[in-house]
Design a protein that fits this description.
This protein has 387 residues and is an alpha/beta fold. 42% of the residues lie in helices and 15% in strands. It has two domains: 39-171, 3-Layer(aba) Sandwich (Rossmann fold), CATH 3.40.50.1820; 189-341, NAD(P)-binding Rossmann-like Domain (Rossmann fold, 3-Layer(aba) Sandwich). It has helices at residues 3-13, 24-36, 87-97, 116-130, 145-159, 183-186, 209-237, 250-253, 259-280, 316-328, 343-358, 372-380, and strands at residues 44-51, 54-61, 69-73, 100-104, 138-143, 167-171, 192-195, 241-246, 287-293, 333-335. α1 runs antiparallel to α10 and α4 crosses α5. The chain is globular.
């Protein structure tokens, strides 16, 4: 991996999928399912409200006495999402700013084309001012389309003679809807593709059929769609590039409990291995593939309502550090330890699982009571690995 590629990778990753061809209503349904699988922290409360006739979601955090208000605009290319689905990211903004967040449920296209969203945003801000909130105590915030709407609302408020808020915080704002800016060309190339699709739970071998479908659609098809959408274009760029697919240790050792999830992550492993083989056999190809397998990592998805990182877990930055270092060495398999499980233990678990086939043991013998003592001894053996 070149120095330039490594720098690009690190910059992108430190800024910490919906199937193509489906109609808007189905995209909205899938997005709701995806977000509902990631519960909010237990100290976050979301309450339905309204401003100026526009529905809103008021987001507060236990233990924080807010002195300011963040008027928040959600993402979704003005077509998807709503004020409540944005509560996860919006609550993080509220936590960091120690403010109450009011997420605006502006009307969406195609049912409500421009200027519906812009009108709703201005109406909500105007009502907030009319309710007695000083503009110096208000900040706008939004991501993607919501970031663009925050900027548009600043301009709209100015043009209507309203006092402006104290600040605006926009994350990757979708501000140029004409797609005519110079960066559409200068940033056209893709240097790093990171496919990190994950939701749970799935189900056992013969239960929760609908959850199986959701987990397969997100965890496996999300990665497949990303690979199919970008790989050929990245090859044709003839510049250094990398495709990183995020797998899971559950896709390698396949512990009992969530067979559906295990299958999706095992599929990501097989897909990425095949991708790496294909790329290295394309003449002149400068794109590499890598399988990232984190250990226990504390993220918004894995928090499950917790606000403190468990002692055994890593932070996302620790995973990124290992990823960048190992990609710099040209590694394909990047399997991260954590504060509870060492690389040696990971290796022994993987080897034991492979030997189930070689030694004709029962499947998943690591969890079979007849093999409990043998597996415990295996973990303590001097060195079961080939030199």
């Amino acid at each position: 991996m070149s120095t330039e590629q490594r720098e690009n990778l690190e910059a992108i990753l430190r800024q910490s999928a919906l199937p193509a061809g489906i109609d808007v209503s189905e995209q909205r349904r899938l997005l709701r399912e995806l977000i509902s699988a990631q519960p909010l922290p237990a100290d976050v409360t979301v309450t339905a409200a309204a401003l100026g006739g526009v529905p809103t979601a008021e987001i507060t955090i236990d233990g924080i006495e807010p002195r300011h208000v963040v008027l928040y605009f959600h993402s979704g290319v003005y077509v998807l999402g709503d004020a409540f689905q944005a509560a996860g990211l919006a609550s993080q903004v509220g936590r960091l700013t120690r403010a109450k967040v009011i997420s605006v449920d502006y009307r969406l296209a195609p049912e409500h084309p421009y200027p519906a969203a812009v009108d709703d945003a201005l109406a909500a801000y105007d009502a907030l001012l009319d309710n007695g909130t000083d503009p110096s105590d208000i900040a706008f915030a939004g991501e993607s389309a919501g970031g663009g709407l925050a900027v548009a609302t600043l301009v709209n408020a100015r043009d209507h003679g309203l006092p402006l808020p104290a600040a605006a915080f926009v994350m990757s704002p979708y501000a140029d809807l004409t797609l005519a800016g110079a960066t559409m060309d200068t940033k056209r190339a893709v240097d790093v593709l990171m496919n990190n699709a994950g939701t749970s739970p799935g189900g056992g071998p013969f239960d929760h059929y609908e959850r199986w479908q959701r987990v397969l659609a997100v965890n496996l098809w999300g990665v497949i769609n990303g690979v199919h959408a970008f790989t050929q274009a990245m090859i044709d760029q003839k510049t250094p590039g990398a495709i990183v697919n995020t797998g899971s240790k559950q896709g390698i050792t396949c512990p009992p409990g969530d067979t559906a999830y295990n299958i999706t992550k095992a599929g990501v492993k097989v897909l990425t291995e095949g991708l790496a083989h294909s790329l290295r056999n394309v003449e002149g190809c400068r794109v590499t593939a890598h399988l990232l397998v984190p250990g226990s990592t504390f993220t918004g998805m894995t928090a499950r309502g917790r606000t403190e990182k468990p002692p055994g877990s890593w932070t996302p930055d620790q995973v990124i550090d290992v990823l960048v270092e190992r990609m710099g060495k040209g590694d394909f398999y990047i399997i991260c330890p954590d504060n509870d499980v060492t690389t040696d233990v990971d290796n022994r678990r993987i080897l034991w699982g492979a030997e189930d086939i070689i030694r004709n043991r029962p499947p998943l013998s690591r969890w079979h009571p007849d093999y409990a003592d043998e597996f415990a001894a295996f973990l303590k053996a001097p060195s079961p690995f080939r030199e």
